[in-house]
Structure formats: C-alpha cells, structure tokens
Specification:
Blueprint (H helix, E strand, L loop, with lengths): L10 E4 L2 E11 L3 E8 L4 E7 L1 H4 L2 H14 L10 E5 L6 E5 L4 E2 H8 L4 H20 L12 E4 L2 E4 L4 H6 L18 H4 L6 H17 L9 H10 L10 H10 L10 H7 L12 H15 L20 E15 L2 E13 L27 E11 L2 E9 L2 E9 L2 E8 L6 E7 L5 E7 L2 E8 L4 E7 L1
Antiparallel strand pairs: 1-2, 2-3, 3-4, 4-6, 5-6, 7-8, 8-9, 10-11, 12-15, 12-17, 13-14, 13-16, 16-19, 17-18
Length: 461
C-alpha cells in the first residue's frame, strides 16, 4: 500500500454517499484501486477506471449495466460490490475491502500450494462462480490475480466489470479483459464467451496453484494465445490424480464438455470445510494488509479546494488533483486543479474539509514529459553468469554482457505515454534461472528457465 499522490482523488461521492480515499492499493490495465472509508467508517476498496474509458459513451452504458448486475451477486466467496457511479467523469465502483494476498502473489512468494489447500481453494472459487453465473454475469477474467486469499477463505474479485471493459470500443493496447495464459480458447478466438469460459479459466487457475506456472507456458502473449487454441495444457506437475482429472475436465477444448459451476460444487462438496491452509508468509501478508488498512500511509495535502457548485442545473463533476493533472472527457484533455469527487444539486455547498487555497492549473502532460509514474523492476535469480541480457522500456533497449546472478535493475517509468511497453530477454545459464518483473513491488509476471533455454517476457502496463 502506498501513499496517495498529489493528483489522486481525496473523495468520491454520489447521491449523498461519500467515500474518503486514503491510500493506493495498486493499479492495472483497468484502472487504479484505492483504499477508502465510508462515512460510517466501513473500509472499502475504490476502483477508478483509466480516464480514456471515460470518453467512450458505450463503455459507460455497459459499466452501468454490469455494475448494477454485479451488485446483485451474493455468496460468501466474492467481494461484494457496494456502490458505483458510471456517470462520474472518471467512472468508479466501491467493493468491500478484504485484507488478503492474491493467489498470484502467494504462489510467487511461497511456491505452489499444498494439495489440500488447492482442493479447498477450488471449492470456494466454484461456489463464487455459482453466485456470479446465477446473477447472469460472466467474469471473463478469472485468473490468479483476481482470486484473493483471506483468513476466511478465497474471494473472487472484478466479476462483471471485466465484461464492460472487454466490450469497449476503445482502441487501446491491453484494453481487452482476459489474460492470455488463463483465457478460454473461445475467448482467444474472439467468439461469444459464456459461463463455460469461466470454468476453463477456473481450471487454468487451479493448475497454476498446483504447479506455480501457467498451464500454457511462458513467453510472449501471442505465443501463449496460440498454444491455448492448439495445445493441451501442461499438467505434468500435478501429482494428485483426482485433482488433475478435475482440472482436465474444466479445460476441455469444447465448451460443451466442461462441467458447469454447479456441477463443480457438487463434485467438491466437503473439500473446503476446513478453509484453505495458507503458508506462513501468506498469513503474515494478510495480517500486514489488515494493519495497513487500519493505519494507512499519510498522504500529502491536496493543493486545491473544490470549486463551489454553479446554479442552473445538477453538477456531476470530478475535479482532478494537483496542478498539472488532466481529465480526458469526450476525447479532449482538459487541465484542471485539484482532484475531488463532487456530487450534488445546484446550490449545494462544497465539502468544507479541504481548506487549501486554489492554485492555477499547469498545462497537461506532453509527450516529452519526464515525470515518473512508477518504477518497473527486472530481476533474475540463479547462479553463475548470463552471457547476454536485454531489457527494454518504451522502445529504449539496454543489453548487458556477462551478467553475474542474481541481477536486479529498477527503471523509472515515465508519466507519458500512459501505456508502458517492456521486455526482458536472456538465455538461462547452467542450473537455470528465474525472472520476475514488478511494478512498485507488485510482481506482474514471473518465469523459470532450464539451462540453455531462451527466456522472454514482455507486456504493457
């Protein structure tokens, strides 16, 4: 968890319901997630989508529909959607906050889960899918990063909203929901995806929990997408025959041959009664998240106060943070000062809490801006030397020779352009090597190569 940045929101509000924004939890392809608190003191997670989605009217309509349906999803193994405002200039939604560690991070930190833990995980996630599909929602992006491990069992997050983003007409690299290593063959092919697509992703997620690797291997995303459609998944590391049989049934190429979520629950009955036994490092991580939520890192004071409402109609505004921030609205970048969410009828007064005086807005960021947004860290673990290693950020490539392991390099990611391309390539030395790529300490990809294998990891952030 990180302190708020000067241009981050301090409040979001709609129809009299207000949520204070306290800290940054993380960010990804869909948007930024913040720690927040309701007026009654309830701790929540607030997701604000990336500004470019806000310029797409079709996206807003889908977001509203999916958020409304997602709020109807019940069950004990999902993160409840509490509130949403698709009409905000930067659309947002609020879910319950869960002190947790994602399945992806847990496996990266502690290795594959024990067999009994995977069985319990499967039972909980299958129940979540029954609730999600019963509400008429297809997740479309079920993967280890969207399965949270909590002290009370697993929770599935980001259901429903993924479909709104996936259907968006915005032409933006990485905008499509879904991760190549966990998408169903029909989703890769671009055809209609139903509940059976989530079942395929469920199987892929369990395979990752069992083995610590993606079932279709590492490498560039286009290569993984091709393998999803043409090759069987790699399940050779799953020793438990019954568990492997379950995963194979979920990952059938033909969607009609996969079990339904309800059938999975029947097959897994009794497997999750004792909860998911978690490694000590994961238990400690969950406790740390709880402590951070109770004592969030202090944020710098905002530089501006929200302007008063103007007469003549209802104001639906979101004012962005410090000088130099910008809102993308209907394709036009508008510089503004201060990021607050303000809701109310004409004549309503602004919140009196912020007291800083207004400052003139600076010009919006230009393509030549060098302000940093985050840091990307490349690391390779192992013994010996790598004869040649290359890392690239936004087309700028650096090649190193005779690199002694372990190796680590942190590179600042510029504020502009808003999407960062990166790549890491090397040949694994004797004994093999393992690499990770992280943004602000959050691992976004990891892989392992045996002696002499050519390793490559690339993506957009």
């Amino acid at each position: 968890m990180r302190p708020l940045e000067p241009d981050d929101p301090r409040w979001v509000e709609t129809m009299g319901r207000r949520y204070r924004v306290l800290a940054r939890i993380g960010s990804g392809g869909m948007g930024v997630v913040y720690l927040g608190r309701s007026a009654a003191g309830r701790t929540v997670a607030i997701k604000m989508v990336h500004p470019e989605f806000a310029a797409d009217h079709d996206f807003r309509a889908r977001f509203e529909r999916e958020a409304r349906v997602a709020r109807s999803v019940g069950g004990g193994f999902t993160a409840a959607v509490i509130d949403a405002d698709p009409g905000a200039e930067i659309p947002w939604l609020v879910t319950e906050f869960l002190p947790s560690v994602s399945l992806r991070d847990a496996v990266h930190a502690s290795g594959p889960l024990a067999v009994d833990a995977v069985w319990a995980l499967a039972a909980g996630v299958a129940e979540a899918l029954v609730s999600i599909h019963g509400a008429g929602v297809v997740h479309r992006d079920l993967k280890p990063a969207n399965v949270l491990l909590t002290a009370d069992g697993p929770r599935v997050i980001d259901f429903g909203i993924a479909r709104a983003v996936d259907s968006s007409s915005i032409s933006r690299p990485g905008a499509q929901a879904g991760s190549p290593g966990f998408m169903s063959p029909e989703q890769v092919a671009g055809v209609t995806v139903g509940p059976s697509g989530d079942v395929f992703s469920f199987g892929s997620t369990l395979a990752f929990a069992c083995t610590g690797r993606e079932p279709f291997g590492e490498g560039p995303w286009h290569a993984k997408m091709r393998r999803v459609q043409t090759e069987p998944p790699r399940l050779d590391g799953i020793a438990d025959g019954d568990l492997r049989s379950l995963i194979e049934s979920c990952m059938q190429l033909d969607p009609e041959r996969r079990p339904t979520a309800r059938r999975l629950v029947e097959r897994l009955s009794g497997r999750g009664d004792g909860g998911v036994p978690l490694p000590p490092a994961v238990v400690a991580g969950i406790a740390q998240r709880r402590t951070e939520a109770e004592n969030p890192p202090a944020a710098p004071p905002p530089q501006t106060a929200p302007p008063p409402s103007r007469p003549g109609g209802r104001r639906r505004g979101l004012v962005l943070g410090a000088a130099g921030a910008a809102v993308l609205l209907a394709g036009v970048v508008l510089p503004v000062a201060g990021w607050y969410a303000f809701r109310g009828e004409a004549g309503a007064s602004a919140d009196p809490t912020p007291t800083a005086s207004a400052a003139p807005a600076s010009p919006s960021p230009s393509p030549t801006s060098t302000a940093t947004r985050a840091e990307i860290t490349f690391s390779v673990e192992g013994d010996g030397r790598i004869s040649s290693l290359t890392y690239m950020v936004n087309g700028k490539s650096t090649t190193l020779k005779k690199v002694r392991l372990p190796w680590r390099k942190t590179v600042p990611m510029p504020e502009w352009p808003p999407r960062i391309s990166w790549k890491l390539t090397y040949r694994a030395p004797a004994g093999g090597a393992a690499h990770t790529v992280a943004v602000d300490g959050n691992v976004i990809i990891a892989g392992r190569g045996s002696e002499g294998s050519d390793m490559a990891a690339e993506g957009l952030y």
